[in-house]
Each structure stands twice: as C-alpha cells, then as structure tokens.
Amino acid sequence: MPILPKKFPAPVAGPMAPFFAAGLVILYGINSASNAMANSAEYKNDPRNPNLKAAKH
What we know:
Blueprint: H1 13-38, H2 50-56
C-alpha cells in the first residue's frame, strides 16, 4: 500500500515562485551584509575573520 493512496494534481511550484524569489533576495542581502561587515575596519584584523586566514596563505 503506498503512502499517498491518491495523486493530487495541485500546482505547487507556480504559486510558491514569489516566495522562492523573495528567499533568494533575502539570502543575497544577508550575504552582502555579512561580507561588508567582515571587511569593515573594526573586524579586519579579528582572528575569527575568514578573510584574514585566506590573506595569510
């Protein structure tokens, strides 16, 4: 016996497309803000900064 006994041909990806697009925009903004903060003067020499480790090698 299958888990879902009946197929439901409801559209899923179409109505959710604006939410997927908004999620990508939010993730891009968070990534940009994170990179900007990591490259700021306050955290440029912080030992936890991943950019500092890449520059030393």
